[in-house]
Amino acid sequence: MQGSSSTGPKDFKLQYKVGAGGTWTDVTGGTVTLTTAVAAGNATTWGALSDVALPADAANKPLVSLRWLQTSNNSVGGATVASGGTSRISAVYVKGSTTGTVNNYILQNQNVGNVTSYGVTGLTGGTTYYYVVRAVAGGIASANSNEITVTTSSSTPTVTTSALTGFGNVCINTTAGPNSFTITGTNLTSGNLAIAALSGYTYATTSNGTYTSSLSIPVTGSSLSQEVFVKFTPSAVQSFNGNIALSGAGLGAAVNVAVTGVGVNTLATTTTGAASSITQTSASLAGSISATGCGTVSAYGIEYSTT
Predict the structure, then answer these.
(1) How many CA atoms are closer than 13 Å to the CA of 121, on its beta-carbon side?
(2) Does 94 fall in a domain?
(3) Separation of alpha carbons 168 and 267, rounded Å
(4) Are 230 and 258 in contact (CB under 8 A)?
(5) Which residues constitute the domain of residue 18?
(6) What are the CA-CA distances from residue 242 to residues 75, 183, 194 (Å)?
(7) 121 located within any domain
(8) pLDDT, tens only, 226-260
């Protein structure tokens, strides 16, 4: 609020600048022109600015400066400002909002006693909170301390997993593994985390445990850490690539664990060696089985011809 005597200045404006080296700029709507000399106890004789917003470029800046200027030598009475003219300012307020670096703290002037730590309850999960502290000495509160931010943990049930190593090519009707992956869960609800069946694969919670085509893991608290062991038993010559789906325990959507494996039925592989002890009527021939393939080698021999 701005007031002047009849011989004091009548024209004023508000300016701002951003940063220490910024340029002073007029604030839109920030001018006051007085038409009546100020009178004690009469608010209508004062000029006032109410809820004038700073421009957008001043938002969320570490330093914004304001100044209040006399813009002419014209007096309230219509003449030139006299040497004895007076001017005064009263009730200056600068307000910030929660979208900037100045926050309206939810907990205001909370008397926590003479403590150096204090627990705050009833907060919302996954939310960033700001807090400051003050001390009171002689009935006078200190300025706010530096502001600290704390983000509460999310209340949304979450499951993450490590990667499951692929099984590669495996002979049909044989079993490979186990390979494993680890489940990590937070904010889960009590119940069971279900591991869905996927053709060709079985699961257990221990390496030497009983493997089943699906699995149910009990969740007794909000968190979970569990290693799951997986074996691969292909029943056909084909790809068994897919996703092992995890669901339940409060999850909004299934979490998939990628798995790869191929069923094969490869034949034995042989290699012909060099001939030796060659005469007009005989020779020693050599050969070897370099890989047995997916079957059992029951017989082997050498064939020869003259063409």
Answers:
(1) 0
(2) no
(3) 17
(4) no
(5) 2-89
(6) 86, 18, 17
(7) no
(8) 999 999 999 999 999 999 999 999 898 999 999 99
